[in-house]
Structure formats: structure tokens, C-alpha cells
Amino acid sequence: MPPAAPASEYLVSPLNAAVPPAAPGEVPPLSLGPLPPLPVPLLLAPMAGLTSAPLRRMCAEAGAAVCVSEMILAHELVAGNARTRHLARWHADEAVKSAQLYAVDPDAARRAAQILVNECGVQHVDLNFGCPVKKVTSRGGGAALPLRPRLFRRLVAAAASGVGGAAALTVKLRIGLARRPEEMTYFLEAGQIAEEEGAAGVTLHARTAEQLYSPPADWEAIRQLAAELRIPVIGNGDVFEGADAIRMIRETGCAGVMIGRGCLGRPWLFSEAAAALSGDTARWPPPPPPNLGGVLQAALRHTADLASWEGDERSAVLQMRKLIGCYLAGFERQDLAGRLYAARSLADWEAVVGEHGADAAPFPASALRLPRLKGGGADGRPAAQRVSLPAGWLEGRDDERVPGYLTGDACEG
């Protein structure tokens, strides 16, 4: 991790200014199936096009106990698709090899889970039922699929059969497609089915598909699900500061916390969250975030590691464009953002960071809770969508047939 800014004051928003860290023993280890208990229950969310090994390693170094991969399409993995096999890779030093699996066909789910465990050495498989993308829900996949509970049940059971007890199986859900009408909300029923069919845990992204990634996340839904299930419930949504993690556990009773967009451009968020959850008074308060120079150094490391991992420097530099705004959020340095966006090589990145890597501008408090990537509209208002479903989808709850399509358009959910 980059060095912290030379300051002693804990950087925190007014929302969390009075939130104390966990007391010793307050937050127990998280147990997920055959995985060793996780002393600090923090997970990196799967994010398509983002959570390849370089970001996973940075977040793990900061304190994430499990870092989930980019989305892997079950049918493509089974078919031996080269790009999908390329995604199904983990660095040798990743303590827990964790994969997110997207499936609509139970047979493909079972076979893909077997491949991940037996050929890739995966220890944790997370099933994606949270994707809100219209192209997916309009064909019955992603967040639309739990509206067909019999098919949902078959998929979870098939994946559980595929991992065969050799890996932990979790399911990632949203609250539903929308809050109204009532039949569009399914998280309690789906969570119960997942538990019955062998899932070791359920992650709830506390938003609807209609809501996309806009605030606020509904932590009350996490509380309801945690009270309903015997298996661990992991909360996801609106964790932008370390104190948010302990606040979520206290308010909801969830067993763990998954962080997604909040850590983009800020992998050190996991060190703050780990300090808040650890119960170790020596770790609190955490040091302030890195200054501008440290942020640039972290972004350069991310770029260099991505180039090495992908074996394609040009591709890595282009991929990093989507994260430049996340790393520089709040600094108001459009000049630096413009130069990094125009970079065509790692040498271009190194030149910019070489000039500004010692810049001591402190991390801006205004950036702590800024939406990142899909977090809201450009005018500051929440971004939302009208959810699309196949004709008759709500009338066919008992239909367990596989949707008549396969897609590569799904996302992290």
C-alpha cells in the first residue's frame, strides 16, 4: 500500500464521526463451508472488468480476506472458451481462490463448478444472481432469475453438487427487481432456497435491480435476511469508509461485509475497514489515506501489475482509463487525469507519476463518499432504470425451464 499522508488526524465523514470501532471479540470470524474461518470478515465484491488479480492482490494486502474474481460465464467455461479460461486464473499468492460464476443452465452450472474446483483449484464459488443489466433481465437472467424460484433452486443445487463440498458456495442476490409491485421482491424466499440447497452463505446487495447502483442501499433488508437464515449473510452496499463496515454489522447483524465500488481507486479502504472490525485497539484510529503522490503511486502499481498479468501493456493502459477518475476523485486535478487518460504506454504513466509522485496534497475529505463509476447520475441525482422482463415472466413462477438464450452481457450485480 502507498504511504499515508503525514498527518495524525483520522479522516472521517460526519456520518461516521461518532462510530467507535469493534470491541475485542465483538465481530466473530466468518465461517463459510470448508474455508478456514476468516478472522476479519471482509470480502472484495466481484466486478466485471475490474477484479482481475492485480486489484485482488492490492485489496488482499490491505485486509480483504476473500477477493472474488471477475464474472465467469458457466457455458463458456464448459465450452473451453479461451477468453473465459483467461479470466479463470489466480495468482499463486492469493490465499483464497474465489470465482464468481454466472449461469442460467443447471447442467452448465454443475460442470463449470467442477472445472473451477478440480482444474483451477478454486476454494470459493459465488453464484451471480444480481446482474441488473436490461439485456440480461429482459431474457430472464441475472436479477430476473430468482423470480422463477424452481429454476433458481435447480441452479443452486447444481452448483452445490459441482463443488461437492470441496469449496464454499455462496449466492449473491439483490433485494429484487423493484420494491413495487410486491412480487418483484424476492430476497427472503431466494435466501431460504439457497440455504436449503447447500449454499454456505448469501450475500445481499441491498438494492433492487431498478435502483442499479444509486444510493441509498437498504440495510434493513440485510437485517431481515440475517434474521431469517441460519447460514451467514454478507452485507453489500454503501460501504465507503472503514466505519461503515462496523456500522453495517451492528445495524444489520450480518456476519460479513462485502465492499465493491467504494474501494475503486482506494484499495486501502480495506485496511480502514479491517481496523474497524478487528477489535484491536492498537489499530484504531487508522492512519489517514495516502496523499496525492501516494495515490498516483498506487495507480501506477495497479497499471504495471495489470500489464504484467495480462501480458499486454497497451490493453492494460486502456483498461485503466475507467479507473483514473476513481483514483483522482476529489483532488480536482483534471490536468493529471487528462495526461493519464492520454497515456499510451507504461512509460507515459511513469513519466506523469515521476513528476507528481512526491505531491503532498492531502486526500480530500470530500472524496470519502463520492459515487464511483456506476454510483449515480452526473448531476448528483440517483441513476435508476425501468426493469425489463420477458413477456409473461411474472406469471410463470413455477416454470423451471432454462431461458432460451446465453449471454455475455451480465455484470457483477
From TrEMBL:
Entry keyword set: Flavoprotein, FMN, NADP, Oxidoreductase, tRNA processing
GO molecular function: flavin adenine dinucleotide binding; mRNA dihydrouridine synthase activity; RNA binding; tRNA-dihydrouridine47 synthase activity
Top-level taxon: Eukaryota
Catalytic activity as recorded in UniProt: 5,6-dihydrouridine(47) in tRNA + NAD(+) = uridine(47) in tRNA + NADH + H(+); 5,6-dihydrouridine(47) in tRNA + NADP(+) = uridine(47) in tRNA + NADPH + H(+); a 5,6-dihydrouridine in mRNA + NAD(+) = a uridine in mRNA + NADH + H(+); a 5,6-dihydrouridine in mRNA + NADP(+) = a uridine in mRNA + NADPH + H(+)
Cofactor(s) named in the record: FMN
Name of one Pfam family that matches: Dus
InterPro entries with a match to the protein in the record: Aldolase_TIM (IPR013785), DUS-like_FMN-bd (IPR035587), tRNA-dHydroUridine_Synthase_C (IPR024036), tRNA_hU_synthase_CS (IPR018517)
Domain DUS-like FMN-binding positions: 43-334
Enzyme class: oxidoreductase
EC number of the protein: 1.3.1.89
tRNA-binding listed as a keyword: no
Family: Belongs to the Dus family. Dus3 subfamily.
PANTHER family found in the cross-reference section: TRNA-DIHYDROURIDINE(47) SYNTHASE [NAD(P)(+)]-LIKE (PTHR45846:SF1)
Protein name: tRNA-dihydrouridine(47) synthase [NAD(P)(+)]
